[in-house]
Amino acid sequence: MTMAATTGRSAISPRAAELAYLVVSGLVLLLMMLLGLTMRLAQAQWLDLQPDFFYMLMTMHGAGMVGIAGLSGTAVMWHFLRRHVPLSTAVFVTNLVFFLIGAVLILGSGFIGGFAAGWTFLFPLPAYSQSLWSNNAAASYMVGLLVIGVGFLLLYLDVARGILSVYGGLGAALGVKQAFGLAPDTEGPPPAVTASTMVLIVNILGIVFGAAVLVLSLVNLYVPSFTFNALVAKNMIYFFGHVFINATIYMSVIAVYEILPLYTHRAWKTNAAFYFAWVLSTVLVLTVYTHHLLMDFAMPTWALVAGQVISWLSGLPVLLVTAFGTLTNVYRSGLKWNPAAALVFVGVAGWAIGVIPAIADGTIAINSVMHNTQWVPGHFHTYLLLGMMAMMIGFMTYLTNAKLRRGFDWLGFWLYVVGGIVFVLAFLLAGGASVPRRYAVHLAEWLPYDRMGSIGAALAIVGVLILVARCFTGVRMAARAEDSA
Amino acid sequence: MIQDVVWSVSIVLMGCFAAVFIWVATGANAAIANYGPVIDSAYRFRTWLFGIAITVLIGANYKTLGELPYINTLPQLSASAVQTSQAVAEQWSWSITPDNFKVGQTAEFHVTSKDVNHGFALYDPDFRIVAQTQAMPGYTNVLRYTFTKPGTYQVLCLEYCGVAHHEMKAEIKVAEH
After folding, report:
1. Where is the domain boundary, B22, B41, B64?
2. What is the pLDDT of residues A72-128, one digit of tens each?
3. Of A42, A75, A222, A332, which sits most exposed with the smallest number of CB within 10 A?
4. Quick check: bond before A224 cis, omega within 30?
């Protein structure tokens, strides 16, 4: 039965709002991919860019990708969650509006103001531009992020309200009793509810910390005597960043739980292991962030050791529950592959495979020689380009033209997957060769990696362009379609 | 070098994972099986996998946590056994004093920054990273490294610090005994 209840008055239907999210996501994603390709072409010396322009593009690319991963992941979560709990379309639309306002402020900070402190705005760099950007440009970036954060916070508060109205408590919605064998699995919440509960817990915390350090940074811009501890700031920034970007994958994986069973005709198993994995992930995502600070020798050693051990533990739910569950669901199921199913399947593969370089980098002895090399973008692009994004585009394909299995979709799929693999392998190879990340100008010895990466990126962009364009052609039909039960 | 081992092990494991996904995907249509028995045997298999994963996790962490780079986890050395070097970062240059050593000497770099976060990354003469730490304003991080190869080492900045981040380099010369 469909719970299509909307508690806010909105002139826009829920379906139209979802499609608006996906259209914006598709367009911004392609634009951000082009920025990324431009960066790789510059590093490959196939394009001539001034360093200040490169670093500005790098900042925009990072902020744009993180933002759009958040926006599109939220669309996936919202679509499936509203089958189970009442959600406000008005709040959903408000988040999109806030996002667009924030995006304009961020793009303006870079393309007009030259802001180039990296998307992570690592304190106190935004205030140390050496005259390359003004305090106002830096402030525009930070206010833009804050506006986007406020939008997401409102949305997660509405999600919490909806979930609590049905389940009474976050523990019940997470399936805590089922996780510890204290209640029957059959009484547990649906996967979409469990995943959404985990995400609202971690993201409300993450966004609040991010907002706090942004406000502190904003004050520091205009009142330089107001400084604060750079290590505390770093902790807050990396807590926010880690939580927020990981939450995008945890939202998008709902697409796997919901879409794959439609084609395998096998329900996703929610049992004690499933609920335990989600309860564990809630704790792990909140506590692992110090793996971004392993080369900060000033941190308490116990916190860094915890960062390593928790990084390793974090691989268990991903590999042994989500990836294993996906493989079990598909194994000899009779599934006839179509692009939507293939995309969400690739998304899980990308996430699982990305665990390996991630855990490597989360090991202190390895991090000593690989931190801030291109190994780092190698691992997070595996998670995001071939993981989260595949799940998200799979969802878009399902929503707009899943029944159509045209050859052109498959061409797009293979260009994207093969291009993506070449692209991330180039980063990982370069990281193994100690090539630094975030360098505008590369040495001659590094050019082969950059050129390999550029070719991979170009192929992937063509593939994504085809897939997204095909989705766009199905938007009108999808807007008329009834919400499926 | 650690990086080579990490790359080799990673690519093999990633390849194995990919192969499993490809095998399941290509076999999805062959000889359809009932879900119930698939689930039962999968869960039994998963218990074995869990055991292997935990064993690898414990082993790898036990080994690597014995090789931490933090000064408080390393054996105490007398003042004469180490050569202390002050390494100060600022936008966009390094000041490293002293910046020459001999093979067999253990250096302790006291790394800090005058302005923003930088990254002190020591590259050996073959241009591979051998050690690194963050250079932070308001903190001094101590990085200990024993030189085993002669030649010219480089220090690159590995924490993005502004428009000339990629030009922020210094040299350290290491002579034979």
Report:
1. B64
2. 999 999 999 999 999 999 999 999 999 999 999 999 999 999 999 999 999 999 999
3. A222
4. no
Contacts of B1 in chain A (CB under 8 A): 369
3-state secondary structure of A316: helix
Is there a single domain that holds both residue B116 and residue B160? yes
**What's the domain range around B133?**
71-175
**Coil/strand/helix, residue B92:** coil
- Supply the ipTM of this predicted assembly: 0.96
Closest CA to A73 of A207, A203, A214: A203
Q: Are residues B14 and B75 in the same domain?
A: no
Distance from CA of B176 to the nearest CA of A (A): 24
B64-106 confidence digits (pLDDT tens):
999 999 999 999 998 889 999 999 999 999 999 999 999 999 9
Are A447 and A376 contacting, i.e. CB atoms less than 8 angstroms apart?
no
CB contact under 8 A, A372 and B133: no
Angstroms from A244 CA to nearest CA on chain B: 21
Q: Which residues of B touch A328 (CB under 8 A)?
A: 38-39, 42
Per residue in A359-378, pLDDT (tens digit) is 999 999 999 999 999 999 99
With a pLDDT cut of 70, the percent of chain A lying above it is: 96
- Domain end call among B64, B88, B117: B64
Contacts of B30 in chain A (CB under 8 A): 332
Confidence of residue A6 (pLDDT cuts 50, 70, 90): very low
Contact (CB<8Å) B123/A304: no
For residue range A225-261, what is the model confidence (pLDDT) as tens digits? 999 999 999 999 999 999 999 999 999 999 999 999 9
Please give the average per-residue pLDDT across A274-280, as a whole number: 95
- Do both B134 and B161 map to the same domain? yes
Considering the domain architecture, whether residues B88 and B39 belong to the same structural domain is answered as: no
> What are the structural domain ranges in chain A?
14-480
Question: Please, where are the H alpha helices in A223-338?
Answer: 230-264, 272-287, 301-317, 324-330
A9-57 residue pLDDT tens: 567 899 999 999 999 999 999 999 999 999 999 999 999 999 999 999 9
Residue B77 sits in a domain whose CATH number is: 2.60.40.420
CATH 3.30.1300.10 for domain A14-480, yes or no, is no
Statement to judge: residues B101 and B119 lie in one domain: yes
| Average pLDDT, rounded, for chain B | 95
Q: Which residues neighbour B34 within 8 Å (Cβ) at sequence distance 6 or greater?
A: none
Q: What's chain A's Rg over C-alpha atoms?
A: 22
B18: distance to nearest CA of chain A, Å? 7
Q: How many domains does chain B have?
A: 2
- CA-based nearest residue in chain B for residue A352: B17
A125-133 contacts at long range (C-beta below 8 A, 24 or more positions apart): A125/B116, A125/B117, A125/B160, A125/B161, A125/B162, A126/A217, A126/A221, A127/A217, A127/A220, A127/A221, A127/A224, A128/B91, A128/B115, A128/B116, A128/B162, A129/B162, A130/B91, A130/B162, A130/B163, A132/A52, A132/B162, A132/B163, A133/A109
B17 vs A contacts (CB less than 8 Å): 323, 349, 352-353, 356
- Indicate if B79 and B156 belong to the same structural domain: yes
Pairwise CB contact (< 8 Å): B7 & A432: yes
Substitution target from B2, B163, B167 for chain A, most A beta carbons within 10 A: B163
